[in-house]
Design goal:
The chain has helices at about 5-20, 30-40, 60-70, 115, 200-205, 300-310, 360-370, 405-415, and strands at about 75-80, 125-135, 135-145, 150-155, 155-160, 165-170, 215-225, 225-235, 240-250, 255-265, 270-280, 295-300, 325-330, 335-340, 370-375, 380-385, 390-395, 400. Helix content is about 20%, strand content about 30%. The radius of gyration is 23 Å and the shape is globular. Helix 1 runs antiparallel to helix 2 (about 30-40). It is built from 8 helices and 18 strands. The chain is an alpha+beta fold.
């Protein structure tokens, strides 16, 4: 491959994408690699010397290796560490049975509901035990010191089980892995596609490679006892909070083994997810079997939806109540502008539409994130994490993206 033959690289990627499409949920879609290779101007950087000593490979070839991976069966242990720079969430523990819980009130909802349980991955360090056998059978278990939560997909059955409370969630999957709204019995907000493996994280990262990105090979590594190449993805735009993404790719079969997202501000990773143990043999069929334990409380998906409908305040603002959503910019510095998403008041107002409805613990948490800013747009508050920042103006317009505070203020000024 010629060092800078981008046309040849593009055509090869297109041919690859046309010839080898796969439908399995646990295989990185070739369309992702095709778009990435065709648009990010890949430089065939050779793998630097390192341990282990592997044959040289270009970034283009490594992306093709990921795309060509036919891994559909595996099991192993994944360690995920997330550090968004948020204050401790312990003060919100008392809200578990309140308005932030599934169902919206004490005694309602289910502790085994996936949309609530898997959100724990948004902070701290967690250990997952995973297993996959093609597109129809997967299992993810979130391990705790004295308890375990498991989410199991087996054919058309979806089960969630929380051993700490002995509660069970049950839903149906009609076999379509792409969400289609009311055509499925499962709730629309159920995070079926929430990334939990390095491959899924890598897939999302490659979707963002759109001509604003540098992709190179950054050496080699050993992950879970396997030799791997390191694919390094870096935004080339100023203003992004993403510094670099590193994906460790199995040298033998092309499966991503580790995903690390480092912030542009420096310091430890915002997200680090990688296998500590991995086995590519077919998991035992019994891995995906589940029967509710004796005495367990079982909540059906449609029952949970009815509970939410009856407990959600009528005045709650859903997307249909917003004035509209616009996307400003492109690539890594894209900013979503949402009109009417908030009232701009988190100060504990007494009227029902403002801060008075926010529990004190949540109010304190929100206040700890806020940073007052002003500009041509007027004034507002920036809520910051190490990755995603949001500016809420006093007139209720929200600007949000994986960009710096200055980028949000600039976008708000230019929108006026």
């Amino acid at each position: 491959m010629a060092p800078n033959d981008s046309a040849q690289t593009t055509e090869e990627a297109k041919d690859l994408a046309v010839g080898r499409r796969k439908a399995a949920r646990y295989v990185v879609p070739l369309a992702v690699a095709g778009v990435a290779a065709a648009t990010i101007g890949l430089v065939p950087a050779l793998a630097a010397s390192g341990d282990p000593d592997l044959p040289d490979i270009t970034a283009q070839e490594l992306i093709e290796k990921i795309a060509a991976s036919d891994t559909q069966q595996l099991s192993g242990t994944v360690k995920i560490t997330t550090d968004l720079g948020l204050p401790s969430l312990e003060g919100l523990a008392g809200l578990d049975g309140g308005s932030f819980a599934p169902g919206g009130g004490e005694g309602e909802g289910s502790a085994a509901s996936p949309d609530a349980k898997l959100m724990q991955l948004a902070s701290g360090t967690h250990t997952l035990r995973i297993a996959a056998d093609g597109p129809d059978r997967q299992k993810v278990s979130l391990l705790d010191d004295s308890a375990e939560y498991s989410l199991i997909h087996n054919g058309d059955e979806v089960w969630g089980y929380d051993s700490a409370t002995n509660e069970v969630y049950h839903g149906k999957d009609d076999g379509r892995h792409e969400r289609s709204g009311k055509d499925q019995e499962l709730p629309e907000d159920l995070p079926k596609e929430l990334p939990t493996t390095p491959k899924e994280f890598a897939q999302e990262a490659l979707k963002a490679a759109d001509g604003t990105t540098s992709v190179t090979v950054g050496g080699t590594a050993q992950v879970a006892g396997r030799d791997a190449y390191k694919l390094v993805i870096k935004p080339e735009q100023e203003g992004s909070t993403v510094g670099a993404i590193t994906v460790a790719v199995d040298a033998e079969n092309g499966t991503p083994l580790k995903f690390t997202l480092s912030p542009s501000s420096g310091g430890k990773a915002v997200l680090d997810a990688g296998f500590t143990k991995v086995d590519f043999a077919e998991p035992a069929a019994s891995t995906f079997d589940f029967t509710p334990p004796k005495g367990a409380k079982v909540t059906e998906a449609d029952e949970l939806e009815r509970q939410k409908e009856h407990t959600t305040p009528e005045e709650f603002a859903g997307p249909e109540d917003f004035g509209g959503l616009d996307v400003i910019g492109e690539g890594w510095t894209s900013i979503a502008r949402i009109e009417g998403a908030g009232d701009g008041d988190f100060g504990g107002a007494e009227d029902g539409a403002k801060g008075g409805d926010v529990p004190p613990e949540a109010q304190q948490f929100m206040d700890s994130l806020g940073d007052k800013v002003t500009g041509k747009f007027g004034s507002g508050t920036v809520f910051s994490t190490r990755l995603v920042n949001a500016l809420m103006t006093d007139d209720g317009t929200v600007y949000v993206g994986a960009v710096t505070k200055d980028a949000l203020v600039k976008a708000a000024n230019e929108a006026k």
